[in-house]
């Protein structure tokens, strides 16, 4: 009798366990590890990214997520250090997360690519895909490309070409100042390449690399730039290295135009201020005024809904494309198998939320998407940035087909089980 009761209890327990397991599976989320600087000098950028991503994920989840599951972003502070990013990768793989996302720092991206290659080769049943949302050194989708790496922002060479082509004809002397690590070195090299190709009349009168995140006073650099006779400063700097540089130049009254990759990021408009009216240009994927200029009411409503609940602009339209492409990839794969998802994402083509084409190229997993050159000014803008009274007005738009460049990538693809 005792054995019969014990067996019955065990059977009921097993049945309940199966029920709970089934419920847990049904409610499971698709976890995406996000690692960027969330503390230290570059935290403002990482925190702004995180807020925009969560805003987008809420929207994507409201549309059904993927295969009945919602997405969940799990943040990890990498303090702008590759070693901390690799710890985040280890934590993500320990938890069987299918994706890891990182935006800031091509040196960190290179470490993640190498770490993921090794992990995925050793652990075919626990693979992970790297979603690169902004680490843009040209090499990463060329000689250092990886099947497990998808880049959702234009690379440095593409941005450099857009920047160089936007220089006015009357500018013939420029100064280059960039951060001394993989990304900044890539900017330095590629701007020179496209100046030689497209604007051989332009002379580089100064060219410097600075230690990443170490300079607090840029006035000595501004003094040198002014003395060089440069008409324009070309820089890929981001975070405080961009904000403090331009703030110093504006305050010194330097007669310069500033051509940047990242002046539009959080903190940039405040650093520029009203005195920078018409002087600062940014090579950018989106500004809130693009929606107005293209008369796209739904995109304007989207960015306004973010503005209504946050103290800075919604500028990362590309992030929405990332999550919508991941959603499409999972649905296309019809599976949560990471290898199948990675294959399903190859060659994906979507319309972004402005209606422009965006394509994840199969050859190198580099996105090709629309880009704009914005000028920071007061006149002709509906939406200002960070309460400055100035906003980004589109000076040029370059379509995806016009930013495509050849690749040296030799992709090695795994077998599908």
Kindly describe this structure:
The protein has helices at about 1-25, 45-60, 80-95, 105-120, 155-165, 180-200, 220-230, 240-250, 270, 290-295, 295-305, 315-335, 340-345; strands at about 30-35, 70-75, 100, 130, 150, 175-180, 205-210, 230-235, 255-260, 280-285, 350, 355-360, 365-370, 370-375, 390-400. By secondary structure, the protein is α/β, with parallel strands linked by helices. The strands form three sheets. The protein has a seven-stranded mixed β-sheet with strand order 7-6-8-9-10-14-15, with helices on both faces. A five-stranded parallel β-sheet has the order 2-1-3-4-5, with helices on both faces. It is globular. The chain starts with a helix and ends in a 19-residue tail after the last strand.
